[in-house]
Design a protein that fits this description.
heterodimer, A: 461 residues, alpha+beta, four-stranded antiparallel β-sheet, B: 222 residues, alpha/beta, Rossmann fold, Arc Repressor Mutant, subunit A, 2 domains, 8 helices
Chain lengths: 461, 222
């Protein structure tokens, strides 16, 4: 059912109910007045000569209508009273007139209970009966029974018809009055349906009422949804960009690795005798590939500001051992000495295990990758939980002082870093720098005494 | 104790490689490829368990929890996902260490040996490094040639290196532990003490290695 029809029906039903209730109350009130008037008129008539006529001829009273019409007693005009028949009874409720009906038992009970006037309605037989006790208690006319015909007044068309007419008017008024409201709701519905489509039209409803407030709430929700959609689109674009960059980054070392392996195969096919060193470039490239993927993962997390979602106490001694063990195979193959030193007492530091390990791994990998054969790399953890330093010392070519600041800039764009040094140390040190920054550590680069580079991660406490 | 190592790894190629590596290193690997098979095994039958986290039929963490209920056997996690939460959860559940894929076979071996070494790091009154024997209580050092006459500083240096046999110790740590800061606490003084110690060790001096960029290391012996 449409809103307008529902409103009209609701108001119409409410009006009918109210009017019926008022009509019923009014009819009850009128009925009571009518009973009182009949009782008063009956007593008055009997006192004005009716008693004498009744007692003179109780077997026939009140059949003598002509005489009654001739001498109408003073008092309330009977035409204002409903048409009724009267029967006389003695104090024991027995009538001398054989035409009189037996006295109704309900009325008898009311009189015996002490009432002077007793009434009963009988909707089934469509009549009302009133019993009136006379001021005297002797003789055959001590109680009068009046019986009027007709339905109970509250079922009369006189009460119900106006109710239906008023209800009809109310329904028509409601239909007309609901028009503007329904129009505004339809306008709101159309606006809300446009949310999520390409239209950027705001949800707006004129006015200062609840419908306008609903419109404002929808507009607020629309803006939130639009912002979330924009953010999702942005992330989707970034993801696509990330996948494209990653594919490019991975393809390069993969191509180099394929080239190394193909070269090895050709040399074997040509009858060359290969020594262990021949496989070093392939192994180094495969390790670089693994490290690159870990780095790209780290970049994705850092760019998404998820860098420190996990801060757990990290055993730095174990972390150093793990990183050195990871890089030991490639260092040995490149004939580079890789050693570590950690304090006897374990140093714990709250941080992101994966990112810190990746940061140190990058520094160690660079120290090995850019070192010469027979070079050295040492990883040293010193200090205590409150104040410690993690140094990676090498005797390789080092980094020119002018370039040092640039490679440890704490904030960077991953894609920029990759394109700047797609196959070099740029990404690794940038990640190390960013991870250090997010952990409150200082990343410092300096010359190694005697030549080479020393990279330090310092926790100053 | 046997050299049995339980490997729980579903990937056939990687499993074969690891089994080969472990066998060549003198271990006795027992390889199971799914969690259901691993669930019924007694962890105390093995010296080390190498556990992959992503397994068909179960999750490696569940196996780890199950093993830890009744056993303290070292467990090394193989993690393909670069996920910190996974590693931390594994370590909290009682794993001793983890190795992130991809890895060189030597790296895995080094981590397994680190797991096996760890319980032996408890202090003892007698330290042995090859032929060199150190009695910490009587403060005596001997080798195949007999008891050596060491100064207190030389003894402290050797004892510290022997306690951390196989590991490099920084010059700073040796200076702090053995030298008197009020007198001769310079690195150069330490080098002089090391030189004298080497001459007293005779043929065993080869065990006292100089580690570039760090300091010294005492190697040798089982």
């Amino acid at each position: 059912m449409k809103l307008r029809a529902r409103l009209a029906v609701t108001l119409g039903l409410a009006a009918i109910s109210l009017l019926v209730l008022l009509g019923w109350g009014q009819s009850r009130w009128q009925s009571r007045i009518r009973v009182d008037a009949l009782a008063e008129a009956a007593v008055h008539r009997m006192e004005s000569g009716g008693r004498e006529r009744c007692e003179a001829n109780p077997e026939r009273w009140p059949r003598d209508r002509d005489a009654r019409r001739r001498r109408r007693p003073p008092g309330p005009p009977e035409r204002t009273l409903p048409r009724h028949r009267v029967f006389a009874y003695d104090a024991n409720l027995i009538s001398a007139n054989p035409d009189s009906p037996a006295f109704p038992p309900d009325l008898a009970r009311q009189l015996k209970a002490g009432d002077d006037v007793a009434t009963q309605r009988s909707p089934k037989r469509r009549r009302t009966e009133i019993a009136v006790r006379m001021p005297w208690n002797e003789g055959p006319c001590a109680v009068l029974l009046m019986r009027s015909k007709g339905p109970p007044p509250w079922f009369s068309a006189a009460v119900l018809m106006p109710a239906f007419l008023v209800a009809l008017v109310v329904i028509l008024v409601a239909l007309l009055a609901a028009g503007p409201m329904v129009r505004r709701i339809r306008q709101l519905t159309d606006s809300v349906r446009r949310i999520g489509s390409d239209s950027e039209e705001p949800v707006h409803v004129e006015g200062n009422d609840e419908i306008a407030e609903l419109g404002a709430a929808f507009e607020q929700s629309r803006r939130t949804i639009e912002a979330q959609l924009a953010s999702l689109r942005e992330r989707e674009a970034a993801l696509r960009n990330y996948i494209a960059n990653t594919t490019h980054d991975v393809m390069l070392p993969l191509s180099v690795l394929q080239g190394h392996l193909a070269s090895l195969q050709q040399r074997i096919e040509a009858g060359d005798t290969l020594d262990a060193k021949a496989f070093v470039p392939s192994l180094e490239e495969s390790q670089y590939l693994g490290s690159l993927l870990h780095n790209l993962n780290a970049v994705a997390r850092l760019e998404a500001h998820e860098g420190l979602s996990h801060r757990d106490p990290i055993d730095l001694n174990r972390l150093v051992e793990r990183v050195v063990d990871r890089h030991q195979p490639i260092a040995k193959r490149k004939q580079i000495s890789l050693d570590l030193a950690v304090p006897e007492t374990t140093i714990e530091f709250p941080g992101d295990l994966t990112l810190l390990e990746q940061a140190l791994g990058n520094i160690v990998q660079n120290a090995i990758r850019y070192n010469r054969a027979d070079g050295h790399v040492a990883v040293i953890l010193e200090g205590s939980a409150n104040q410690w330093a993690l140094r990676v010392v090498d005797d390789g070519p080092g980094i020119a002082p002018a370039d040092r600041e640039r490679v440890v800039e704490p904030s960077f764009r991953g894609s920029e870093a990759r394109t700047r040094h797609p196959h070099g140390m740029g990404l690794g040190l940038h990640i190390a720098s960013d991870v250090a920054d997010r952990h409150g550590l200082r990343l410092a680069l300096r010359d190694t005494h005697g030549g080479g580079l020393t990279v330090e991660l310092i926790h100053a406490g | 104790m046997s050299n049995r190592i339980l490997l729980v790894e579903d990937d056939v190629a990687l499993g074969q490689q690891v089994v080969q590596t472990l066998s060549q290193a003198g271990f006795d690997p027992h390889w199971v490829q799914d969690g259901d098979a691993a669930r019924g095994l007694d962890p105390d039958d093995y010296r080390v368990i190498v556990l992959d986290l992503m397994l068909p039929g179960t999750y490696g963490m569940d196996l780890l929890k199950r093993y830890r209920v009744k056993s303290e056997v070292p467990v090394l996690i193989l993690s393909a996902r670069d996920d910190t939460a996974d590693k931390i959860r594994g370590l909290k559940l009682g794993a001793d260490d983890y190795v992130t894929k991809p890895f060189f076979p030597e790296e895995l071996l080094a981590r397994i040996q680190a797991c096996l070494r760890r319980p032996n790091l408890v202090g003892t009154e007698r330290l042995v490094a090859g032929a060199i024997q150190i009695d910490l209580q009587r403060r005596e050092v001997s080798n195949a040639e007999g008891t050596l006459s060491l100064t207190p500083v030389e003894f402290e240096i050797l004892a510290l290196l022997a306690r951390r046999k196989g590991s490099a110790v920084t010059r700073e740590a040796l200076v702090d532990a053995a030298l008197d800061p009020a007198h001769d606490s310079s690195r150069r003084t330490l080098d002089v003490h090391i030189s004298r110690l080497r001459s007293k060790l005779g043929e065993d001096a080869i065990q006292l290695e100089t580690v570039w960029g760090i300091g010294y290391r005492l190697s040798g012996g089982a």
